[in-house]
Amino acid sequence: MESTKTIQLKITDIDSDLVETMQKYSDGMNYVSEIVFQNGKVIPAMKLQKMVYPYLREKIGLKSQVSCNIPRQVAGSYKTLLEQIKCKKTKWQKLQYTPSSMTLSYKRDYTITEDSVSITTFSSGRKTYNIQNYDYAKEYFKEPWKFTASKVTKHDDGDYYFHLTVSQKIEEPAIEEASNFMGVDVGINYLAVASTTDKKCKFFAGGEIKNQRNIYSKMRARLQSKGTLSAKRVLKHLTGKEQRFMKDVNHCISKSIIKFAVQEKVSIIGLEDLTNIRDTTNVRKKQRYLHNSWAFRQLQGFIEYKAKQVGVLVEYVDPAYTSQTCNRCNHISKNNRKGLRFHCEACGFEMNADLNGARNIEHRTRDFRYIVESQGCLSTIHTDNLS
């Protein structure tokens, strides 16, 4: 299987040539977006490329590879929009692009060393820019890692970064030989609870983190009530600070989960398919902010790519009733769970509610192996469906 990772490297000597190139790139994106919007439906990437390639090359003056990247990227964005329309989350609309991101193909559009990146610019051809590298990132410049399509991105603070994407092939374990599975239940009170086939478990408490996020929430409410220009500036900074805090927490938790999985010799980690989770789950009013803003999917994504790096598979399972099902007798009832306590009204079994959920996820993940053995096929639920 393929393991990928993206490293953010700051470009320290940005110039007008690179800024102009990104502007031309966004001009091309908006031109192609207009074509798709006027068509009224998604146009397949290859067909779209044939339609817009001459204009991108001759009128805007973009390079050949970039003129191929743009229609693929726009087609993908409209495909995502179509999925959101099907879920009644939005309506057909024209997508607008700003000059804040540009996708580049390795060798054709960029080459890179540990200290610099060479990028094909619009007016001046190939130009070399210095990058700020980090000790942890230097290992990805060596075998078996290989460079793939990457991005130049302008961050909210105005600085430009090169988002280098690398990949490597890792031997995929045979599912039929898997004997130890792990289910991971993500939530608010416990950010994650992991349980293995042999009942080993690990809790990742969220109390202090929840308190910190409540502090952010109250600060945000005070700033919003003021409504002054300075308050809005502070509010923007606070939002970015909270997002970085959440991302760091998710990285730490996912790292610990994978360490636990390796320690227990887990072959497959089971996660719930949380697509549309915010639309289908009811929570108490006091917890609505925490539930709607917590990056559950981000945590799962971190678990997934870290699992790939150590050769552990990840499978997404149906989340229906995992919190209401007794993992001992399989009785399902809304009354089984009350807060952090799970008490089965049928057999009287009691345990922590999140641990019960994790064991149900592990059980469904284990069932996946038997489906593969009996039918000779893999599940249709994969991360491509969880964007």
TrEMBL record:
InterPro entries linked: Cas12f1-like_TNB, RNA-guided_DNA_endo/Transpos, Transposase
The family this protein is said to belong to: In the N-terminal section; belongs to the transposase 2 family.
Pfam families tied to this protein: Cas12f1-like_TNB, OrfB_IS605
GO biological process, one term: transposition
Domain Cas12f1-like TNB: 296-361
Listed PANTHER family: RNA-GUIDED DNA ENDONUCLEASE RV2885C-RELATED, TRANSPOSASE
Keyword terms, alphabetized: DNA recombination, DNA-binding, Transposition
Molecular-function GO term, any one: DNA binding
Endpoints of the signal sequence: none
NCBIfam families on file: guided_TnpB, IS200/IS605 family accessory protein TnpB-like domain
Residue ranges constituting the Probable transposase IS891/IS1136/IS1341 domain according to the UniProt record: 173-277
Organism: Methanosarcina mazei (Methanosarcina frisia)
Transmembrane intervals: none
Protein name: Transposase
Origin superkingdom: Archaea
